[in-house]
Amino acid sequence: MAVSAKQKTISSAPQKSSLAGTIPTKKLTKEQLFKTHAEHIKQQNATQTPNGPRPVKQPNLEEAYPASEKSIRDLEIIPLSDLSVETHHRGKGLIVKVVSPPYLGAGAVSIVEDHWGNVDKLAIYNQGDSAILSGVPEGCIVAVKEPYYVQNGAENDFMICVDHPSDVILLRFIDSIIPEPLRLGPLLKSAGEWTTAGDQAFLQRDFPTAVFCYTEALEGLEDHSAKAPVYTKRAGVNLLLGRYDAAKVDALASRIGASTDWKAYYNAGRAAYGLCEYATSKSYFEEALKLNGKGTANVQKEFERVLARVEEEETGNYDFAAMHASLSPTSVHIDAGSFLRNTRVADSGFHGRGLFATRHLKAGDLVYVEKATLMPNQYDPARASAALYSLMVRQLCDNPSLADTMLKLCPGQLPYERTGAEGSMVDGVPVVDVFVVEGIRTKNCFSSPLSTYDDTKPTYNSVCMAKGLWAHSSLMNHSCVPNTMRSFVGDMLICRATRDVQEGDELFQQYVPVKTQVDVRNKEFEEGWGFECRCGLCEGERKSSKERLKKRKEAVLALEKFLDKKPSTGKGATIVPDATIRTVDKMMRQLEDLHETEVYESLPRLTLVYPCNWLVDAHRAKKQWGKVVKYSLKVLRNFGFNAAPRDEDPAKLTVGWDPREIYTRSGEVSLMAVHVVASLRRLAEAYAALGHKELAERCVEAAKFGYTMVTGFSEDVDALGQ
Question: Which is one GO molecular function term here (predicted)?
């Protein structure tokens, strides 16, 4: 399921058939099936780019059905001729031989035959590139568990549709469950022949086939000394495929109790590193070095690399600037560990589980740094969701140990009860329910720019966002006025405290940028995540009367409508007429008056942020610095930073006010945002122009401090532009 810029999403909703629940009486003949299949393959070969990307069949949650949790050996094997349309054949199974090359589209479509001589089409979806089933070769024998049979659009055209990757099993040729007519008999190879075939597949870079051949070879060997080199070969191929769980097992199985076992520990260390199990990886590399003195240069290099990851996990010391400098469109995955020691997972009084501080944290402190559990390098917003979904499915298939991390996350509402069997091993493969995976993706993923620092720059294309899963961060609950702020550098998520946090306090984040009006944003939360926010801002704003809420909406609409027709106040804009400024100021004051003092005395007034920023820019263009101070302070106030003075006379603000204290003295309902940093910069500029140099310097320091929270690491506030 490789994803590229050309990849698209295919809907998984099957067409409804009037034949639902019945065995079709008219179907394509064997000859017709082979003819149309050959035509499709011929057309594909003529039009498709070799090794080009394949589209992803992303699940439609409205059509969700559970993956089979049963072994093929516990199912009744039925003939293809017994399949009913649009029916999940619970308790039933198929064993079929692939009798055609695959047509490779969103899935692999092949012609299959059972031992009764019946033929039909089999469409296998959601198999990773490392799986031989992603394009199952002709001659292989597969088992389909609890098959789903659908009409394929054209009249008399039907196929078996396998959405869940664990619902289809590639059977070994000597498996006793294979009916006698499908067995290969004298075509079976010896262990040596299978090993040679694996070596040839490896040289041709057909790694899935190489793994299959080495597996068959191991079944034909009894002596461990003969098996060991085959385990080593399979471990190496599994490392190349990113199957780190299997690679680690194979590497350790290749040990023979001699000094040459250093290579086994070396491969096991590389596999553990790929799983981000850095302490385990370190122990394996240490064993490799013991057996091989100082080891080869590669062992020593990998050992030093894992020591750096362990230190990051323990100390939280990172060179974020170097990480940022290493980024490029083709290099977004940072080689770094996760620092999570300042947090713990516990039951939340707000919703399910949450993250809690394990020590006192000051505003600006690093709360944690998390490397993405999974994040594909796909920044096209039209393809990012499909890319993440396909990667999640692939990794759950290739590395079953990830189930402990990923499948504990909430998938939202599904039309069936989860049994908890997802991730468990059945028939040698982990049970993977693609609808559960898609639910987890939709409820837990984050949108991520290449870097938040670059995303704050005026020239950056902020539409380009990847989708990623950070499992630890996903456990943090939402607040519209959170006490943390996240930022990104490649696939690293940086979380900093936005105000002082006491040990034991629950940590909160914004799931999405919050809407300015309480009912609008809570509708978004209810539709997206199924909760009503009970943060200090939402609970406080609910005390406002419905009449006032209605009038505020009308005032906001009128103000936005008026401003949409006026010249921009941004960089390069024309000077705004005084009459327009007076009108905006009047409309803004009317909107201010609609915020009840008893409700909003200490709450953010988010509806006022936009017009205040507009007035700051309008007065700045005219170099009316006193007014710039006035409205910049209002911006801070409207974000809930109540430590900012409300006396708007700049002459009275040179004594007794330190802008750096807004982060620590503004209470529990302030909202940190890049606009706060911009306002502090405007204040610094205005104070400098008014001759208040010291106060201007304090504002610059406060802006730099805030920018570190916003970007995760940078104080370069000049990146925000003029």
Answer: methyltransferase activity
**Three-state DSSP class for residue 508:** strand
Give me the CATH topology for the region 30-182.
OB fold (Dihydrolipoamide Acetyltransferase, E2P) (2.40.50)
Q: How many CA atoms lie within 13 A of 357 on its CB side?
A: 22
Three-state SS sequence of 102-163: CEECCEEEEEEECCCCCEEEEEEECCCCCCHHHHCCCCCEEEEECCEEEECCCCCCEEEEEC
Per-residue pLDDT tens over the stretch 573-598: 568 899 999 999 999 999 999 999 99
Instruction: Return mean pLDDT, the chain.
Output: 90
> What is the average pLDDT across 467-479?
96
Q: 658: Cβ–Cβ under 8 A, 6 or more apart, which residues?
A: 698
Q: Which fold is adopted by the domain 320-529?
A: Beta-clip-like (2.170.270)
Q: Of 159, 91, 98, nearest to 123 (Cα)?
A: 159
Query: What gap in Å lies between CA 388 and CA 377, rounded to an integer?
Result: 9
Q: How many CA atoms lie within 13 A of 206 on its CB side?
A: 17
Query: How many other β-carbons are positioned within 10 Å of the β-carbon of residue 610?
Result: 18
Domain ranges (residues) in the chain:
30-182, 191-315, 320-529, 548-720
The helix/strand/coil state of 501 is strand
Instruction: Quickly tell me which residue has 């009916």 as its tokens.
Output: 179
Phi first, then psi, for residue 5 (nearest 5°) are -65, -15
Hey, what are 50's tokens? Answer: 């070799």
Of 426, 142, 219, which Cα lies nearest the Cα of 234?
A: 219
pLDDT digits (tens, 9 = 90+) for 405-427: 999 999 988 999 998 899 999 99
pLDDT in tens, 149-179: 999 877 889 999 999 999 999 998 888 999 9
Asked if pLDDT for residue 654 goes beyond 80, the answer is no
- Give the pLDDT confidence of 704-715 residue by residue, as tens digits: 999 999 999 999
| CATH number belonging to domain 191-315 | 1.25.40.10
Q: Rounded to an integer, what distance in angstroms lies between the CA atom of residue 445 and that of residue 490?
A: 15
Task: Give the bridge partners for 57, in sequence order.
Answer: 10
Do 452 and 487 form a contact (C-beta atoms < 8 A)?
Answer: yes
Tokens of 240: 């190349």
DSSP string for residues in 10-75? EE-PPPP-TTTTS--S----HHHHHHHHHHHHHHHHHHSPTT----EEE--GGG--PPP-S-GGGS
CA dist., res. 637 & res. 672, Å (int): 12
Residue 478 has pLDDT above 90, yes or no: yes
Cα diameter, the chain:
98
Helix (H) or strand (E) holding 426: strand 425-426
Q: What is the Cα–Cα distance from 122 to 28, expressed in whole angstroms?
A: 14
N- to C-terminal Cα separation, the chain: 44
Which CATH number is correct for 548-720, 1.25.40, 1.10.287, 1.20.120, 3.90.320? 1.25.40
Q: Are 543 and 599 in contact (CB under 8 A)?
A: yes
Inter-residue contact 602 to 667 (CB < 8 Å) = yes
pLDDT tens for residues 504-515? 999 999 998 899
Task: Kindly state the DSSP code that residue 481 receives in the 8-state scheme.
Answer: S
Q: Do domains 30-182 and 548-720 have the same CATH topology?
A: no
